[in-house]
Each structure stands twice: as structure tokens, then as C-alpha cells.
Amino acid sequence: MGATPLYFTLALSLPSVDKKWLADFSQSLKALAKQYNISLVGGDTSKGKLSITINATGFVEKNQALLRSGAQAGDPIFVSNTLGDAALAWQQIQKQQTPSSALLKQFNRPEPQVALAQSLLGIANSCIDISDGLEQDLSHILTCSKVGAGINLEALPLSSEVAQHIANTQDWCVALAGGDDYELCFTVPNAYINRIKAIEKDLDIKLTRLVRLLKRKD
Amino acid sequence: MGATPLYFTLALSLPSVDKKWLADFSQSLKALAKQYNISLVGGDTSKGKLSITINATGFVEKNQALLRSGAQAGDPIFVSNTLGDAALAWQQIQKQQTPSSALLKQFNRPEPQVALAQSLLGIANSCIDISDGLEQDLSHILTCSKVGAGINLEALPLSSEVAQHIANTQDWCVALAGGDDYELCFTVPNAYINRIKAIEKDLDIKLTRLVRLLKRKD
């Protein structure tokens, strides 16, 4: 994490050509590409079952990339914005309900946290984007960094809709295992904690401290 | 075309885990990666309908890449090796027949013509790999270069199996529209024709001259 976006490729497999869908899809993709000033440089189109593979490549100085390894016992863990919005939208869609526009936006058009990841270069010592849910993605950091963690549920940053959903159902899975939020989970050495507040202010983003990392008991 | 391979990514979507298939697939992929001295640097695995997207990235000096544009009227067109072997193998598989090992190899393990493309840097003025069949891929060169071409069927380089199949069935489609051979189709200015013989010898590869490019009649 922490790279500057350079270009992306698209491999698109479709069972048939739906011009309306293709127009909407390519417009959205183009808008995102424009936002990050990158071009579609290649890929493939083929007929087949629906499959979309987008491969974004970026550049980061040697040895500067934020990896899953590097976290140390005692480091605080942070996550950006709120968790579970995309998963709750998907759950509602599956139940034939109509999610709010806020939830739907997070599900259909999650914002890549590119500026945040770049701000964390030289500050965070591990970082991952939460695509599969906090529990699974934080576990990647824990495994690669050989540390442990306990998550304080009360500390999880939740939108009011997700908080209400959990209050009603005790379904913590949307926030812990839902995925598709693409928020960042990262660890910061205590010496750099003050820098986090400055980043929050600069980027107008919410960064929530979850727990400290624990030494792993093997 | 003409780049030096740098790295590749793999996005794999599978309906279920078939350990035997995965072992065979990853061994083959690893062997090819080793042959070209490149690493798998990222990608994704997910559960879903079968979809395999491999994205190989290479490096080529600025303004040196062989593009689809650049061909001039009067330039001879060349193709590498033979055409239609992969398509004939696929046709036989669909008819429950067992293709020869030579055909099957071309279908299952086509050789990327990396060394040939690199040898053509500074010599060819357009180049494409034949993934969709000669007719379609040559058309990309013709469109991008704003030239025309006639294909002399007698000149097409065919393996004895494909030649026999066409003699029996008049099914020229395997050689013209079959695809999946991944041979190269390229054009060379007349001044560099002699270099082609040297490349043939150096790389121990067959390069067949098809026709000259024609001026496009708009």
C-alpha cells in the first residue's frame, strides 16, 4: 500500500452485450480513472460467464511500501471511516430491500483510500485494505507480522445505520466479516501517534484506534 | 510487442477447490514464469464461476514498442511457425476426438513468442500476436495502419495435420479464424527483409511471408 497509481488494465468477460450496462460501467470506471489521473492501458474482452478483473498498478519508492508485515507488539491499530456499510447494503439487496443511498454508495462505489495510504508512508509500519472484512484482513497483518490482537467491539467505527442494525440483530458479522468496504487497517508505532491526528485533519477522514497489538502466544 | 517480461498477476475465480487441477495449473504457470524469469507479484482468488485472468507486464524502451500501427503499403507480411493447430485441437476435443500430442501442446501450452518479438524491435514496423485468428488480428494491423491486404491461402504456413484437415474438409477457418496459436503476425519494410532470414536462423523459427500490404481503397 501507499503507491501512486500509474495505470490499470481491464479483463471483461460478458455472456452478452448489454449496451446500457456497458455504458454505465465504462462511465463509472472512466470517472474513477480521471480522478486518479490514470489510463486504461490494456486488457481483454471475451464472451463467457460474467467476470471483471481490474488490475491497478502503482509506483512506490524502494523499501517504502506499506506491507502486511512490520507491525510490532504494542502498536495501536487504526481503521479508516466506518465498517460494514457495504456488507449491510448487500445483505439488504439479497433480502429485496432497498438500501439507503449512503449504504449503496459504499457498496457500488467505494472510494479507494489512496491519499490516506500515501500519507501513511513512513508513519504506519503495516497496512492492508479491508476487502474481506476486518477480522480476515487484520489476520493477514497478524500472521505476516507474527503478533496477536484482541478487538474491542465497542471501539469499531460504525455508521448510524450499521450501529442500529447491530443493536437490533446482534449481527456483528457485517462490521467484522462483511468486506467490500475497502477502508484501510494499519498499525502505527507509538512514536508516530501524533501524526495520525494531523492526517485526519488534512484529509478530513475519520481514523479510529481499535486496540494495541499483543505479543503472539505460540 | 517486443517488451522484456517483468512480472505477472493472476486473478483466479473457481466454483470449488480441485486440488489436482490447482496443482497442475500452478506447476505449469510456475514453469512458464521460471522460463521467462518473472514473478507472480499479486492478484486475487475468489469463489465464483471459472475465470482466469493473467496480466503480464513487460518493459520496452520509449517509442520502441511494436504497435499495430506503422505498417506501410508495399510491406511484406510475415507470420511465425504454423497456424490453426490450437483451433484444430479444440475442434477435435469438442467432437470427443483425441488430438495428437503436437496439436494438444499448441492448444494447452502455446509458447509466447517473446524472443521473436524482441528480435523484431527496430526491424518490424507493426506486430500483433494471433490470439483471435489471422483474419481478425491482421485486420487490427490493417485498421490501425490504414492499409489493406489480400491473403494468399496457398502461402499460409500449416502443419501437416492442419493441411490434411483442410484438404479433407476445405475448413480454412481453423487456420484463418481459429485463434489461440499466439504466433506473431508482423510487417517489415523491404529494406529489412534480409534481417528476417538471420532471425529465422538465430531463433530456429519458421517465418513465412504471406503477401504485400496494399493501399487501402476508402
Structure notes:
Two copies of one chain form a homodimer. The first copy, chain A, is an alpha+beta fold and 218 residues long. The first copy, chain A, has two domains: 4-59, 60s Ribosomal Protein L30, Chain: A; 76-215, Phosphoribosyl-aminoimidazole Synthetase, Chain A, domain 2, CATH 3.90.650. In chain A, 36% of the residues lie in helices and 26% in strands. In chain A, helix 2 (85-94) packs across helix 3. Chain A is globular. Chain A binds chain B through residues 9, 11, 13, 43-44, 48-51, 53, 55, 57, and chain B through 9, 11, 13, 43-44, 48-51, 53, 55, 57.
Topology, element by element:
Two copies of one chain form a homodimer.
Chain A: E1 4-14, H1 19-35, E2 39-47, E3 51-59, E4 76-80, H2 85-94, H3 101-108, H4 114-119, E5 126-130, H5 134-145, E6 147-149, H6 160-169, H7 173-176, E7 183-187, H8 193-203, E8 207-215
